[in-house]
Design goal:
This protein is of the alpha+beta class. The chain has two domains: 167 residues, 3-Layer(aba) Sandwich (Beta-lactamase), CATH 3.40.710.10; 160 residues, DD-peptidase/beta-lactamase superfamily (Beta-lactamase, 3-Layer(aba) Sandwich), CATH 3.40.710.10. The chain has a six-stranded antiparallel β-sheet, sandwiched between helices. Strands 3-5-4 form a three-stranded antiparallel β-sheet. A two-stranded antiparallel sheet has the order 6-7. The chain is globular and about 65 Å long.
């Protein structure tokens, strides 16, 4: 996840101008980077069944304890697919499209899964990246599985010290921004494929580039954007009813698949429910069970990470916790984004929880504790 200092430095940049706005359906103008445009909270919340006071207190605490956990802009909880809690921060409502940050990685993984299921891509074959196909290039051995498990071996610094020295900031906001995939795919090897875990937003951009190349042979940015929009709409957004989903693209027409999409809390929850039901929507299987099994299989080098999704498992010594394996169910998993964006799915509890907001790095331990408390109370 990006460090907050990058946003303070570069938050005024707008991907509407720098990278080209993408949308599935006509969308409101893209907000400045690092911000989600507030919309006037419209009173369209449906009356929900009363929650036990202890449960409601845990949910409300995510708003009340802002000094500890940061600003919560949306909290939406489903049990068995039905809403049981919905609340928004001041200036936000059910129609507010909020930024995904790295929750986008899990959406990119699902899009990749569709093409694997179609037989157009292979999980275990060398990834079809032209820059890696020269004779003797060790990157030619990198597979989709390596990319999805964050074990490609490609050199990448997710968060630099100072933050602007990181490769992610350079890719998103600096010299790599016009063509993010070329920047990411040009990085040299630092380890053998499968040797080390290295969380990398550039890896997800490479996957998005592979998906676009599979959908169209054209290098025209417009053609690439259109192909991706149509694919997302037909295979994911329309079947799930995610009408607000708005991916962003760079100037080369590559979806920024590791960091930047926008949607409402309700639509993020639809994606969570899709994962909770292992790729089935309204009784129709859209994604093979085998792909969901893969996504939820721990990365060989970090048990807390699956196929572009976080797992409620103990991570290697020295790695920061992502969830709460000492408290929650073993089958709990989550899409997690910078500044505290969460889609939490707990199949054994029949729960999907969406929390969106702005949390500083030093507030994350307390935010995780609050979310663990809520999950346990439910």
């Amino acid at each position: 996840m990006l460090a907050s200092a990058a946003l303070a430095l570069l938050g005024a940049w707008s991907f509407t101008h720098a990278a080209g706005q993408g949308s599935i359906a006509p969308a409101t103008p893209g907000p400045a980077m690092g911000m989600s445009a507030p919309t006037e909270a419209v009173e369209t919340l449906q009356p929900l069944p009363p929650l036990p006071a202890a449960v409601r207190a845990k949910a409300d605490a995510l708003f009340a304890d802002a000094d500890a956990v940061g600003e919560t802009r949306a909290l939406y909880v489903l049990r068995d697919g039905e809403p049981i809690y919905e609340r928004y921060g001041e200036g936000f409502g059910p129609d507010s499209k909020l930024i995904s940050w790295s929750m986008a990685k899990s959406i990119t993984a699902v899009l990749t899964g569709f093409l694997v299921a179609d037989g157009q891509l292979s999980l275990s074959a060398p990834a079809p990246v032209a820059a890696w196909q020269r004779s003797g290039d060790p990157r030619g051995a990198i597979t989709l599985e390596h990319l999805l498990h964050m074990t490609s071996g490609i050199e990448h610094v997710e968060t630099g010290d100072p933050v602007w020295d990181g490769d992610t900031v350079t890719m998103l906001f600096g010299s790599g921004a016009p063509d993010m995939a070329s920047f990411a795919e040009a990085r040299p090897p630092a380890a053998q494929p499968g040797e080390v875990f290295n969380y990398s937003s550039a890896t997800s951009v490479i996957l998005a580039d592979i998906v676009a190349d599979t959908l169209t042979p054209s290098k025209s940015p417009d053609a690439r954007r259109d192909a991706m929009r149509e694919f997302i709409a037909g295979r994911l957004a329309e079947p799930l009813g995610m009408t607000s989903l708005t991916p962003e693209f760079d100037a080369a027409g590559t979806m920024i698949g590791g960091s930047i999409m926008h949607a409402t809390a309700r639509d993020y929850a639809k994606f969570g429910e899709f994962l909770r039901n292992h790729g089935v929507v309204n009784g129709q299987r859209l994604l093979p069970e085998s792909w969901m099994d893969f996504m939820l299989k721990p990365s060989p080098k970090d048990a807390g990470y699956g196929g572009h999704i976080w797992l409620n498992r103990t991570r290697p010594k020295g790695a920061e916790p992502s969830l709460w394996p000492d408290r929650g169910p073993n089958d709990l998993f989550a899409c997690i984004g910078h500044q505290g964006q969460y889609i939490i799915v707990s199949p054994s509890q029949r729960l999907t929880i969406v929390r969106l907001g702005v949390t500083d790095d030093d507030q994350f331990p307390e935010l995780r504790r609050h979310l663990a408390d809520l999950t346990a109370a439910l």
